[in-house]
């Protein structure tokens, strides 16, 4: 029978490069004898006390501080460890750079046995979670125990079998988990591919908004939602919501207001499991609508450059709350949606550009063809005016001249706009004189249509204008107002100074503009309720105001009337 080695025999120790050196020294204040610790260990259950008595003197208790490494992966396995006190974690560092926790061992367990038995490098790393008390056995000592104690050998094999079964089960569970995770990712990828096909199937922005929102709602299992687009010119979010059957109403929300405004301003994702417990949620919206909000997912829609192009706001997931998978889906959808919207915008601009080009060619042809006849007609009218024997004839001749000038100006106006001509020549003018001259010119036309002009001039001093172009936009606005008052009404013209600007307002008492089309009135070729006209009137107004470094705003209430507000700088900037 092989005898155990004497205590003075040299022992093998782990490489200093791979693991912490664990010194074998008896703690002088140990209250529990070594033999008692060994009897508590699962390897020594029912082992003959005589065997324990013979091996115990060869061993000693060791202390490892919390956080210290006991042995490293790939190091030589020279010892088996008995854990007397504390906890030890066994983990493996994968090639993907992730620590995979294999086990957390407690008092009475053992570790490090495989490398000791098969002579191969360690397959994992052992670290002390707490301050640990351990006992180490080298290979000769373990071999002696296997020879001397069948019970020790049985305990070792039994625990190895249990560990293998546990590892097999863990491996199977991990495979199932990974398979489910991969299936989930594949499903999300398929949904994203389908979503990409859908959102790229339309170029009409209004229809595209509905398609994108529908994909987002179905993809996340939400009950409903809203897709806002960012309008950087006004620092607002805008969207369209259904109001009644076949009626879409535009809504606008300043950056920073509400959950969507907060997301647009900060770029953060807001995922609220319980809306009424979050101070950012406004319950007044539910009170007004009668809809009960439970959970909310609000995320930025970013374009390919990472810039916020809009905001998704999704409400009430059908099963549970919105999770990371939902956030990942919306994040993936975001770029496709932003690109589709940008493509739709570019397509719209290309169509408008082509239409403007066609209008420009037409206007150029008209001006070329009528230039000489109109000039001749104007000269003859001037001669008639001078030689007219009666005042009535002179007035008729003056009307001919006025209408010729108006026709030529309108045609030139369309030609300039279609060509993108933006040259202006501002000069300091007396606003009161300009307004009076313009109103005197249109008063006769408006009077025939039972439209009365009300003057409210609080500011009549100087300001900067290209007088010819400004008078033309005044005519456009006055003509639109008259068209909106088919049965007559009142056109109020106001002027007021505000800071370093002058505001000029044209307010009519006409039919007003429906909410669902109000945002489009400054688009080229957009008309509403007219059988005549090019649809360029307000688009030209907007362009001329931008050239003056001014602004134009429109307020309207259906059935009550419309106000167009022009803002001009008073002085040169």
Can you offer a commentary on this structure?
This protein has about 575 residues and is an alpha+beta fold. It folds into three domains: about 35-170, Jelly Rolls, CATH 2.60.120; about 195-345, Beta-Lactamase (2-Layer Sandwich), CATH 3.30.450.40; about 420-570, Heat Shock Protein 90. The protein is about 45% helix and about 25% strand. It contains 13 helices and 21 strands. It has helices at about 35-40, 50-55, 115-120, 140-150, 150-200, 205-220, 260-265, 285-290, 325-385, 390-420, 430-450, 465-485, 535-545; strands at about 60-65, 70, 80-85, 90-95, 100-105, 110, 125-130, 130-140, 220-230, 235-240, 250-255, 270, 295-300, 310-315, 425-430, 450-455, 460-465, 490-500, 500-510, 550-555, 560-570. A six-stranded antiparallel β-sheet has the order 11-10-9-14-13-12, sandwiched between helices. A hairpin with a 5-residue loop joins strand 13 (about 295-300) and strand 14. Helix 5 (about 150-200) runs antiparallel to helix 6 and helix 11 runs parallel beside helix 12 (about 465-485). The longest helix is centred in the middle third of the chain and has 64 residues, at about 325-385. Residues about 1-30 and about 240-245 have low confidence and may be disordered.
């Amino acid at each position: 029978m092989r005898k155990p080695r004497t205590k003075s025999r040299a022992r093998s120790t782990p490489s200093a490069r791979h693991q912490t050196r664990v010194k074998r020294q008896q703690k002088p204040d140990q209250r529990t004898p070594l033999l008692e610790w060994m009897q508590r260990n699962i390897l020594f259950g029912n082992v003959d006390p005589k065997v324990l008595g013979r091996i115990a003197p060869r061993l000693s208790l060791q202390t490892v501080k919390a956080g210290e490494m006991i042995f490293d992966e790939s190091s030589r396995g020279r010892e088996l460890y008995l854990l007397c006190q504390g906890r030890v974690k066994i983990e493996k560092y994968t090639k993907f750079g992730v620590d995979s926790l294999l086990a957390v061992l407690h008092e009475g367990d053992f570790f490090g046995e495989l490398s000791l038995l098969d002579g191969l490098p360690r397959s994992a790393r052992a670290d002390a979670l707490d301050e640990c008390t351990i006992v180490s056995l080298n290979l000769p000592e373990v071999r002696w125990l296997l020879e001397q104690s069948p019970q020790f050998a049985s305990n070792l094999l039994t625990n190895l079998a249990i560990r293998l079964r546990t590892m097999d089960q863990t491996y199977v569970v991990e495979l199932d988990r990974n398979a489910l995770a991969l299936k989930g990712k594949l499903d999300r990828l398929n949904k994203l591919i389908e979503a990409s096909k859908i959102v790229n199937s339309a170029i009409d922005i209004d229809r595209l908004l509905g398609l994108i929102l529908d994909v987002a709602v179905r993809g996340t299992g939400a009950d409903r939602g809203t897709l806002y687009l960012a309008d950087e010119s006004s620092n607002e979010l805008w969207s369209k919501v259904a109001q009644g059957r076949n009626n879409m109403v535009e809504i606008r929300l300043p950056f920073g207001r509400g959950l969507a405004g907060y997301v647009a301003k900060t770029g953060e994702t807001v995922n609220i499991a319980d809306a009424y417990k979050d101070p950012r949620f406004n319950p007044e919206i539910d009170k007004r609508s009668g809809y009960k909000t439970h959970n909310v997912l609000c995320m930025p829609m970013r374009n390919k450059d990472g810039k916020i192009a809009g905001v998704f706001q999704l409400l009430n997931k059908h099963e549970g709350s919105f999770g990371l998978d939902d956030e990942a889906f919306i994040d993936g959808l975001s770029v496709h949606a932003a690109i589709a919207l940008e493509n739709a915008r570019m397509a719209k601009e290309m169509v408008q550009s082509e239409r403007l080009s066609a209008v420009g060619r037409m206007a150029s042809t008209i001006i070329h063809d009528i230039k000489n006849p109109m000039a001749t007609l104007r000269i003859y009218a001037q001669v008639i005016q001078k030689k007219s024997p009666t005042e009535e004839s002179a007035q008729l001749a003056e009307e001919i001249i006025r209408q010729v000038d108006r026709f030529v100006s309108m045609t030139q106006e369309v030609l300039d706009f279609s060509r993108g001509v933006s040259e202006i020549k501002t000069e300091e003018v007396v606003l009161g004189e300009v307004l009076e001259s313009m109103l005197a010119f249109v008063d006769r036309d408006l009077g025939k249509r039972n439209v009365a002009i009300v003057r409210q001039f609080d500011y009549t001093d100087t300001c900067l204008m290209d007088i010819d172009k400004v008078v033309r936009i005044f005519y456009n606005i006055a003509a639109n107002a008259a068209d909106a008052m088919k049965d007559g009404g009142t056109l109020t013209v106001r002027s007021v100074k505000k800071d370093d600007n002058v505001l000029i307002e044209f307010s009519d008492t006409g039919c007003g503009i429906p909410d669902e089309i109000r945002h489009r009135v400054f688009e080229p070729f957009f008309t509403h309720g007219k059988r005549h006209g090019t649809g360029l009137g307000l688009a030209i107004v907007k362009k001329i105001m931008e050239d003056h470094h001014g602004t134009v705003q429109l307020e309207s209430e259906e059935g009550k009337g419309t106000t167009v507000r022009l803002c001009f700088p008073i002085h040169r900037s």
